Amino acid sequence: MSKLNKDILFLLFEELQSDSKSLFSCLLVNRLWCETAIPILWKNPWNYDINYKNKSYLFAIIAFYLPISIKEFLMRQGINFPPILYQSLLFNYLSFCRGINVTIINSIIPIGSSLKYNQFLLQQEFYNLLIKTCPELKYLDMKSINHQIFYFPEAKAHLETLYELDCNTSDNPTYFYGLARICQNIQRLVIINNTIKVNYGIAKLIEVQESLKNFEWKDDFIDDYFVEDPYKETLLALEKKADTLNHLKVFFLYGFEHAYELLKEVLPKLNKLKTLIIDELFFFPLFAKNQLIYPYIEVLYVDFITINVVSSIIENSGGHLKEILLFKFYDYSFEENFNEDSLNFIRKICEHCPLIEYLTLTFSPTKEHFTEFEKLLNVCQNLKLLILDMLDIDNIVTSGEILENGEELLKTLIRTAPANLKEIRLFDYYKISLQVLEEFFKEWRGRPALSILTNDTIYRGEDYMKLVNEYKSDGVIKDFRFVSRNEMY
Question: Which InterPro entries match (predicted)?
């Protein structure tokens, strides 16, 4: 392993970008490994699961590159710099950097001074330095920024390459107007809505983008008093990006009647979507059959959507769907023809989702439903995760029949579960006796270790835990946990 050439090592280390512990340990193997890992670590040095407030070396390395005149000025203000400033560095670290994270920079700034004015000065010099030094900026997290960085020298030349932007709606609109003048090639825009005020600067920034592909909006506040609709301007701006937008993730906490009307207008026009995730919206606009047509859709996760609308989306999906995660909050018992509609839903998946990997199913405990479910397992051989719920629409299932349903489910899985299936999440309508569960574990032996999540407290019992631990030791079960209903999704 230590003799692998640099190109192979680079490819391997790139796969570890989200595993900071392993990537940092590569620095200690030998000089070649260190030289190969450093550019990857410093490509986005803000992206690691570490406590930046206590990492003085990150502060020291950035400060090292400040011009001598700037350092002397800052020291006269009472700002302290570590001894590393007077040593040489092994690498030109900032030459590898492709991003700026305002929140993390602000968290390390107090290392130099506890005075607010001095911290303001340091922030300004650090931002200015990074914008000038990083050869090609791709990523900017500007949440809670206090400086108009687009006015810095060389800002236009370096910020116009920006690919991804993370921001808050509480940031001053003028910051977004300034960025809109320079940054018109942003492809991924992530917005945290943390204020009740409407930010028109964000809508303008969206409007000028030429190839916006990925848009995320998440509400993050508890006050539901609005003077204006916080979503309207954003949705209208997104409507104009239908030709480029591929991924839409929206987490609305509060609903407005005209916002729903806008969604009804906008969503059907975004027909290039590959990802549609709308979470926490406690009412989804009613759409007619075949009104939402997404021929490239791969990921579908929508709360409060009728089962017939989902079936229609699946029917027109072009066979690309890999994830269908639904039914988190919506109560399908209010649907008039749930038994028939849920059968149709399963059949549509069989017909149109050969690539499906993650799937939520809710269906009635009838023989016909179990038959169609088994057909689905035979067809969908890429399945990795199954979330299974049952809806007794007529309230006729007895406790004994609930046990029978659990047994029938496990027998079906043993007969036809795809080889890739690694996780099952079962709601409490699937109760499984200790004996049946043990038989299932025995039959599962020889397949990939299985994780099972449930929201039924029965499996917390001593006998069940003893059985689970036995088959964990044998490598049959990877995990078996009780979780809340929300954690099932």
Answer: LRR_dom_sf
The pLDDT of residue 29: 77
Average pLDDT, the chain: 84
User: If you search the block for the tokens 């690309």, which residue do you land on?
Assistant: 320
Position 8 in a domain = yes
In the DSSP assignment, the letter for residue 332 is G
Under 8 Å between Cβ of 390 and 455: no
Counting Cα atoms < 13 Å in the Cβ hemisphere of 243 gives: 5
Place of tokens 């946990």: 481
Quote the radius of gyration of the chain (alpha carbons, Å). 27
Do residues 167 and 143 lie in contact, with contact meaning Cβ atoms separated by under 8 Å?
yes
Domain span including residue 22: 1-41
Rank 42-46, 79-83, 274-278 by mean pLDDT and report only the highest: 274-278
Q: Which amino acid is at 97?
A: C
Mention every residue, 6+ apart, whose C-beta is less than 8 A from residue 384.
357, 358, 420, 421, 422, 423
Total domains, the chain: 1
Which residues in 33-117 belong to E strands, given as ranges?
A: 99-101
